[in-house]
Amino acid sequence: MTLPPAEIGDNLQDIDTPALIIDLDAFEANIAKLAQTVSDYGVRLRAHSKTHKCPEIALRQMAAGAIGVCCQKVGEAEAMVAGGVNNVLVTNEIWGEKKLKRLAALAKDATIGICVDDATNAQDLGQVARDAGVELDVYVEIDVGAGRCGIAPGKAAADLVGIVDAEEGLNFQGLQAYHGSAQHIRTANERGAAIGGTCDLVKETLAEIAKIGIDVPTVTGAGTGSFRFEATSGIYQEMQCGSYIFMDADYAQNKDEQGDPFTDFRHSLYVLVTVMSATKPGKAVVDAGHKALGNDQGMPWVADIPGARYQRPSDDHGTLILEKAARDVILGEKLRIIPGHCDPTVNLYDWYVVVKGGCVVDLWEITARGAIR
User: Where in the chain are the domains?
Assistant: First the structure.
């Protein structure tokens, strides 16, 4: 773990760069808005911690009403539980004796859930749960259109539910039905159509499970880009939104029902960079490249200079194109960059520098950074 790039009380310009900063006002507004929205819809929020990897943030989400968090890896779950989070769902399939034993150990201190799409995996989970003297909540994951993990909806899923329900040490808790790729479909009508297809597959599966007489307590899924459709479907009880707390340049390209930019939530996450070179006309170089910004879903945006564009990152350099910028840059000045994709960007840092009114007010450790197992 590296030392934080700032101290409480520093001004924005005192922060060492590159640094991951949170605008506290925008961040708190995002948490409050989704908490109120899901409450109005009569559904629950299980916030996705793979976005932030930080127990401090998870606890703030739960204080605002989230029932717990999701994560993707056992290591992330371990970090959450160690940080005081008492309800964690691993929305992924986990294989291997070492990982399963680590998962079962966590169930001694917290409510732990896990997804399965295979009978052998379910039986392995039951064995480690019995050996550890714990019970694990299990959700059968169905493939609802993303083409990733998940058993086929309908009878195949119902058969697996029967196996899980009969396995000692496991509590069948419901269905995992998350359509990840739908989150980034740009138009609201097309996103809604994709989730409509997802709901049809969930209904088909619920009908098959009803035939074998097993109750389905929860259908969980949804994300920042689509949650309004799942929340109003009458099928889902739990929303798994994650990126809403930060937003990024990719999500900002989604459109709402009127075709306007997706503005439900505010940008609160930035990478602070320094202008380190300006020897070429119309260009400048900043000290943040691939090692400081997740660019897999597109280039980041320059927040502080309208018209400036970030492009051509290398390992430790990024180029600003200034031909249409509202102003020129100053060597040594610090600028805020909106990441193209918040999740992988967060995984590059050890600390959040929390800023309010241009002043550092807190430092939050990203304890699950690098937790890929």
Answer: 12-20+263-365, 24-248
Contact yes or no for 79/55 (Cβ under 8 A): yes
The answer to whether residues 18 and 292 touch, using CB atoms and an 8 Å cutoff, is: yes
Which CATH fold would you assign to the domain 12-20+263-365? Lyase, Ornithine Decarboxylase; Chain A, domain 1 (2.40.37)
| Tens-place pLDDT, residues 165-216 | 999 999 999 999 999 999 999 999 999 999 999 999 999 999 999 999 999 9
Report pLDDT digits (tens) over 94-141: 999 999 999 999 999 999 999 999 999 999 999 999 999 999 999 999
